[in-house]
Amino acid sequence: MGFKSGFVALVGRPNVGKSTLLNQILGRKIAIATDKPQTTRNRIQGVLHSDQGQIVFVDTPGVIKARHKLDERLEASVKRALKEVDVIAHVVDISKPPHEEDFMIARMVRQLGTPAILTGNKRDLVLHTEGRLEPYLALSPYRHAFAVSAQFEIGLDDVVKTLWDLLPEGMPFFPEDVVTDQTEDFYIAEVIREKILEQTRDEVPHSVAVTVEERQARSERLMYVRAAIYVERDSQKAILIGNHGQMLKQIGQLARRDLEEYYSKQVFLDLWVKVRSHWRNQEAWLTRLGYPKRDS
Whole domain around residue 247: which residue ranges? Predict the structure, then answer.
């Protein structure tokens, strides 16, 4: 058998574990993962290298009904990704029945006709898996179905083995030392946003965006990073800063810990919180913050 290569889209509604699945398959963290909806906002590519070939996983934003221009851009990003891949992996939460978003995704899968597999995640949350996949299998003609636990790495080998079988022969898309297409600045911003999502209550997470404004190696032992955290209201800014700056300090400490592991050196993280009213509904600001346009 020749060298296999191709693209696999991980698609699903929010909080089904797509990013955790990706990180576990690759054996390293390239996508942030929290229990908050819309944790993933950008298409993130992760590359699995093997003697068999190369699988490029495309982690997509969770599919939801659009409420803002940001949601519309994220939905368009998902639809583009599904049209550009060789295999679709519809990831679902088998501890719960299908949601409206699952029906939306299944409809897209049927219309495209791209080979698709059903990946039923969170099997660790149910006593028995019997009958858990059937309600989802009725939604679309999936080639294969699996009950897995991304968190505990149960059943992932079977999923990957099947993907190798479904992918075409071809040339590698990335060099062997590349595991993701994301930039340093993107990773830094995502780590900061992850810590914000983990530490703040429901009023804040959806309204947060992070940009890296400066990144400079000050010495062999020190990396300086200045980042801006954008929210939509003054009340959200106050929550993020916290009493005597304690919340922002805590977020910075947690993010710095991850970034120092990433850089293997000390990181000085300089965080600033700024208010930009209704940025999720402003096309110019969505573009400035790096969210692709709907027609791009």
Answer: 184-288
Nearest to 280 by CA among 98, 15, 61, 66: 66
Helices (H) and strands (E) in the chain, counts: 9, 9
Retrieve residue 182's tokens.
Answer: 């994301």
Q: Which stretch of DSSP H or E encloses residue 262?
A: helix 246-263
- pLDDT at position 295 is 62
Residue 280: give its domain's CATH number: 3.30.300.20
Q: Where are the alpha helices (DSSP H) in 27-112?
A: 69-83, 100-112
Residue 211 CB neighbours (<10 A):
18
In a domain, 296, yes or no: no
Distance CA 153, CA 197 (A): 24
Q: Are residues 73 and 19 in the same domain?
A: yes
Q: Which residues of the chain have pLDDT under 70?
A: 1, 295-296
Domain count, the chain: 2
Read off the pLDDT of residues 112-165 as tens digits, 9 standing for 90 and up: 999 999 999 999 999 999 999 999 999 999 999 999 999 999 999 999 999 999
Find out whether 131 and 94 touch, Cβ atoms under 8 Å: no
Which helix H or strand E contains 47, and what residues bound it? strand 44-49
DSSP code at position 66: -
Ordered DSSP codes for 174-239 = S-TT--B---HHHHHHHHHHHHHHHHS-TTSGGG-EEEEEEEEE-SSSEEEEEEEEEESSHHHHHH
* Cα→Cα distances 92→25, 197, 210, Å: 17, 22, 28
Distance CA 61, CA 77 (A): 8
